Amino acid sequence: MALSLSQIPLAMFSAFEFYIATARDLGAGPLRNGCIPILISINQLPPIAITALVKQPKGGSAMTKRIITTLLCSTLGLIGATGLAHSDSIGRYECNVLGIANPEPLGDRAHHGLASFQFSCVGVDGLVKGAVFSGNSVTEWDGTQGTILMSGGVHRLAGGVAVGQMIEGASTVIMKDEKPVSVTGSGKTIFKFASGTLAALSGKTLKFSNKSIGFNRFDIEFTE
After folding, report:
1. What does the alpha-carbon distance between residue 2 and residue 9 come to, in Å, rounded to a whole number?
2. Where are the domains of the chain?
3. pLDDT for 183-198, tens place per residue?
4. Considering only 19-28, 79-88, 185-194, which range has the smallest mean pLDDT?
5. What does each C-alpha distance from 93 to 122, 211, 218 come to in angstroms?
6. Pairwise CA distance, residues 81 & 85, whole Å
C-alpha cells in the first residue's frame, strides 16, 4: 500500500526512528516486530518501504518499546485500511444499462457493429458517493475490440452538478471457452462544467476504467 507523509501525524516522526527496508526485507514477508511494511511517498518521489519502531525513546523500557511498536504498526495499518492509500481515486459508480446493449451489425464485414445505449449509475465511493450519473455511450465494435466513439453525461449530487465528456476510450470483450464473459474499458474524460459540491471536478481531465459486474451492469472508476 502507498501513503503520503501528509496522511501520517507528524508527532510520530519526532518521537521515533525508522529503518528503511531493503528489497531483501520486502521479499521476506513481515518485517521486524511483525509489522507488515508500508510504502511512503515523499513529494511524488518513488515510494520507500519502512518498518516499525526499532529504537525506543530515550529512557524507555523494553516493555514501552514493544507497546509503542504495536501501536505504531496498528495505526499505520489502519491508515492504509481506510483507503487513504488510493489517493489518486476520485470516485466510483455502479451502473445499469438501460435497454439493450447488443451491437447493431453494420453489414460491411463480419463482427463489425455499433452499440448504443443509455445508462444510470449511483456513486458508491469517493467524491461522487451518493451521486447519480446519467449518460449514454456509443461504441464501434470490431470483433472483441471496441472503440468508444462517444460517452458522457450529467453527474448530480446534493448541492452539485457536473457534466463530463469522454475524449478517448477503448473496450475489450473478455472471452472464456470461446464465449464472452465480461467487458472492460478505459479512457479519459474531461469535466467541462462542475459546480457546488462537485466543483472540484471543473476543468479536470480524469482517467476512467470500467468492467462488467453482472448482466447489463458495470462499474466505472475515475482517477487522476
Report:
1. 16
2. 2-84, 89-223
3. 999 999 999 999 999 9
4. 19-28
5. 5, 11, 9
6. 8
